[in-house]
Amino acid sequence: xxxxxxxxxxxxxxxxxxxxxxxxxxxxHELWLIPRVSSYVAVGLLGxxxxxxxxxxxxPGLPFLANVALSLVLFELGYRINLxxxxxxxxxxxxxxxxxxxxxGLIYLVCDHFGLAQDVxxxxxxxxxxxxxxxIVRVANELRSAxxxxxxxxxxxxxxxxxxxxxxxxxxxxxxxxxxxxLVLAAFGSIHVLVTSVGVGVLLGVVVPLxxxxxxxxxxxVTVVFALSVVLLTTMAYGLKLSPLLAALTFGIVAxxxxxHLTNAQRDFGTAGDLLSVFLFVYIASLLNWADVATGLVxxxxxxxxxxxxxxxxxxxxxxxxxxxxxxxxxxGLALTPMSAFAILLLEQSxxxxxxxxxxxxxxxxxxMLLQELLGPVVTQRTLMAAHETHVTRQA
Length: 396
Hints:
Blueprint lengths: L1 H31 L3 H14 L12 H18 L3 H6 L1 H24 L4 H11 L4 H11 L4 H33 L2 H30 L6 H22 L3 H14 L12 H17 L3 H6 L1 H21 L8 H10 L4 H13 L4 H8 L1 H21 L10
Helix pairs in contact: 1-2, 1-12, 2-12, 2-18, 3-7, 3-10, 3-11, 3-12, 3-16, 5-6, 5-8, 5-14, 6-8, 6-17, 7-8, 7-18, 8-9, 8-15, 9-10, 9-11, 10-11, 14-15, 14-18, 15-18, 16-17, 16-18
């Protein structure tokens, strides 16, 4: 009887927590305009704190589902990237690249100062380059945000994510080389993954719009086709041990260039996208260990401060060169605060592909991840509101 009751608890854990997360997210957004994603993270953290049976254990299929959820967001982020903008204003791309290198260097120095191992320091530095597309895109869509700061944040987020994947794969390749001495394995683990992931994304970005143009497809049908294509891409990436996140981002960028349009009403991929978003943030939060959070709190606070200063300083310093005011440069840097959903799934993929230090890195970064995913969306939301680029009311 006890066994049956425990099984029932484990079976009900995820549906109950997701339902609770949705209700909490809606209520807090209605009362205090708190970003829904922050509420989802909070519920996931509480579920992990009480060690709810069936939530914190290893459940088959959940990592894949989380990657599908984030890949949908990355596709949408890529779909909002206008490559011609970089031609007209190359300073935006320059800022993204320079800021990524500066962030990497400063974070590595901080980790080295705290006495962390070299491979751990390199991984943390590579992950710190990234911003959280899930947090930023969901908040921007929630606010229906549009304007100079909003578009710049989305474009810089895409650059940060691509460079973060590149840096992490190079670190993984370096680790394979240092541990095994096999140059072929090191190259296969980094260059092959990067090139093939981008290639798969480009292939789908060309083929899917081509198929859609063969017949008149309703707007809803376009959304379904793109969503199913992202699921296919994620499955392929898992089977070939590629990066589904990089492939999805590339898919979105190329599809945007093929002129098959998603309307504003189709952002977040509708109800299915909303459900996957709730799951993604609850799942990410449930992966964090509270003991690790307490142990690494000081380091986490220092890393957050250094990362924020790096992004803000670079955007403010190059603001006039890139055609905006220093105030908007400040807002752009602050809006890039969220980072952990993307970083955690990158670590999880690396662990599944045999990268042993990934487990240790997640423990070291637990406090940083928790604070930035819980509070980061709030910073992004308030920043976009201060920039007067939002188009919702408190009742929306």
